[in-house]
Amino acid sequence: MKVSLLEQIVPYFIMVIRALQQRHISGLGSEIGGHIGDAKILAQNFQNCTFNFISRAGNSVAHAMARERSFLFEDCTWVEEAPASVESAAAEDRRWIDPP
């Protein structure tokens, strides 16, 4: 059975989130452990900061925004209107809160 790249890396995402949630860093390589440590130091600048894993299916608007951004080669700002794919994902999310 062939496993997709996403299925292969999601466990690592979850492992990173769990490491961010713990007080001490353990069991991670020195490179990723350094990034985890940096993130924890930056998080101390906030009154409250939590780290949670949200799957792509549960975060479709952010995924659509990231996908749109990956096609651009310059900085951009969406103020009043977003790309159609992002607006569509947001409309789909709203259906869960306020069904037609």
From TrEMBL:
Domain RNase H type-1: 30-68
Pfam families for this protein: RVT_3
Name recorded for this polypeptide: RNase H type-1 domain-containing protein
Organism in which the protein naturally occurs: Hibiscus sabdariffa (roselle)
